[in-house]
Amino acid sequence: MANEQKFALVTGATSGIGYELAKLLAQDKYNLVIVARNQPELASTAAELTQQYGVRVVPLAKDLFQRQAPFEVYEEVKAQGIEVEVLVNDAGQGQYGEFIETDINRELDIIQLNIGAYVVLTKCFLKEMVARGSGKILQVSSIGGELPGPLQSVYHGTKAFVTSFTEAIREETKDSGVTITALLPGVTDTDFFRKADMEQSKLVAEGSKADPAKVAKDGYEALLAGKDKIVSGLKNKVQVAISNVIPDDLVAANMHQQGKPVDDESK
């Protein structure tokens, strides 16, 4: 079947890595279902992708912080008779700060978005993919899932879940004709840090940030090749490799130092 008939669904598709992945899919003539909260941004992105690439784009405005929202996404896709060949779970947020001081309701929302939505959409579409013997899933995780994350404890925890979950279901479905790929970016130049109130972190303020288009390209190539996991960027590959041989408490202490605010004078 030519790509012209195929659909890809991308969450978090109006900015950052999700937007760049949507463009790559459209360039390869996949029709798109794009999911985000902001209706005007969604409409603008849909119009841009349609005009630029000549593909059909179905915008779905859904707040994936809400438990029912991913189920509603699936139901609307089914109601329109759309068969999703590629699922990209990208939407995710974090929260910066000491865990004892951060807002628990904000963190429960993040867990729902970063874990709940991934699990629901993956289950719904993976069942269909396995039944027909074809399909591809890209789970946007993070190198944060490989490292303890002081000052971002919940975010790092959610990404550890995503990577572990992806590895487990990949094994379960390995002979099904479906591939499931995890993309692990590092610090990337997106809106993530503003939403996480994290712009004053040394990691963000003083460190280099990857180009989301480059990260998306790494993930997209790995998805097409059916790879299991891709760490985007040499520096991130090195960081993950080193963290695997250094004791976790030292990794955590180092991450804590890197994550502190730039105006924090304490050593």
UniProtKB/TrEMBL annotation:
InterPro entries (UniProt xref): NAD(P)-bd_dom_sf, SDR_fam
Entries under Pfam families matching the protein: adh_short
Family the UniProt entry places it in: Belongs to the short-chain dehydrogenases/reductases (SDR) family.
Keywords assigned by UniProt, alphabetized: Oxidoreductase
Listed name of the protein: Short-subunit dehydrogenase
PANTHER family (UniProt xref): ALCOHOL DEHYDROGENASE
GO molecular function: oxidoreductase activity
